[in-house]
Amino acid sequence: MTEPATTGERAALYAVIAVGGIAGSLARYAVSLAYVEAFGSRSIDDVPWATLAANTIGCLAIGVLATSLSAHSPNWWLRPMLITGVLGGFTTFSAFALETGLLLSGGFTGQAAVYVGATLAMGLIAVQVGRALAGGSR
């Protein structure tokens, strides 16, 4: 992405990232609510599957968007709005870290190991699948 040249362009960039962040955060919360509705809890067997699902979906979307959205698009704001804003708000490393810490402090070492391993594996796989779906290797 070419950096915005003027103060007005920078302000517009910050605004679209913020709007994207709001949308992503609300979508992330909706995933948690959907899990509670479907399964009665955000976690099953003490593994926080809702967070894993959000992070995996976000990684897939980042793979698709990073590959398919040109850094030199005429819509210069679209890539940072979607990747930094929407998907930055949707995925959640801080929740991952908190939930892992809670599992460990609660004595759920095995579940913590499954969660950490699944998060890393699913994230890496989802990004690569997203890139492949978008037809590129950028």
From TrEMBL:
Question: Which family does the similarity line name?
Answer: Belongs to the fluoride channel Fluc/FEX (TC 1.A.43) family.
GO MF, any single term: fluoride transmembrane transporter activity
Q: Where in the cell is it found?
A: Cell membrane
**PANTHER family hit by this protein:** FLUORIDE EXPORT PROTEIN 1-RELATED (PTHR28259)
Q: Name the predominant localization.
A: membrane
Q: Which HAMAP family match?
A: FluC
Name the catalysed reactions: fluoride(in) = fluoride(out)
- GO annotation, cellular component aspect: plasma membrane
List UniProt keywords, sorted A-Z: Cell membrane, Membrane, Transmembrane, Transmembrane helix
Pfam families in the record, alphabetically?
CRCB
Q: Where are the transmembrane segments?
A: 12-35, 47-69, 81-106, 112-134
The molecule here is called Unannotated protein
